[in-house]
Amino acid sequence: MVLYILLFLLGLALLIKGGDWFVDGSVGIARRFHLSEILIGATIVSIGTTLPEVMVSSISAAQGQSDISYGNAIGSVICNTALISAVTVAVRPGTVNRRSLRLPVIFFFSAAVIYCATAYFVGEFTRPLGICLLCIFAVYMVLSVLDAKKNPNPELLEEVADKPVDAAAKDPKKERLALFKDIGFLLLGAACIAVGAKLLVDNGIGISNELGIPQKVIALIFVALGTSLPELVTAITALAKGHSALSLGNIIGANLFNIVLVSGLSVTIRPFAVPAATVVKGMNTSLIVDIPLMLAVMLILTVPALIRGKLARWQGILLLSLYAAFCVFQFVI
Known about the structure:
Elements: H1 2-32, H2 37-48, H3 51-62, H4 66-91, H5 98-121, E1 124-125, H6 127-150, H7 154-161, H8 172-211, H9 215-227, H10 229-240, H11 244-269, E2 272-273, E3 279-280, E4 283-284, H12 285-308, H13 313-332
Antiparallel strand pairs: 1-2, 3-4
């Protein structure tokens, strides 16, 4: 049991550091090939923080562990919204750019309607659904890049500018060495993410078996929290710099990616039925608790922000209360 926990924590550490190295290497390479910072920010930086969820859910799907693949995607949305963004909102509520939030919010709820309708009326996530979600992801990325070029976000540019790049790039030898360094960071980051995700999945399963806890619960809380740590680091950094709006944008973007990219890829790899590991009065808790809570916390976070153009402390406190109740519920059912 102790070994499972240690390897689980090692997997988390590899995921976090691997994601950091992957983004740094990707940004460095993109800059050396003169890609715009807007393009980098709208694609590489956004996807980089979601890579842990992608790898964990993909490996889980390939191994036939649908409970972890499913729970990680939904749990990450709940964790991102009701814990990570809630902390930043409760500590420092502020104004938001309604225009920049409109696109990811529309895409999130559009994808969520398709996802939830499938869960409730079909009861099985099929490969065509996975492909549909991946197509939505592709369309969103194209529209995001076009929108970023038309209306650049200065906070996003500042985030990209924080990523290191070798200042002595004019020297051909140093430039080649720097390029090899960036490639090394990219490959090392990808390897760490892959190994970390495998450790997380395998030892998460081991811990759930040892404790007799359903795998979905482990995925909804512990795996989801672990794979959401990059978003947590980003949120804390943005909060420290006074960019709470940037933190909110990253969270909503990551939530969308969890639905269309993480779920889409895992379902495409191996379709599965809606997990029913836990029931309350004969009803699947996924359908009466997990999915409704995912939608509710996103509505609480985004609707007031879109209407009023600012966040309120009560939103953060309410979301944190819901997350605490959700965690307690998972262990008492």
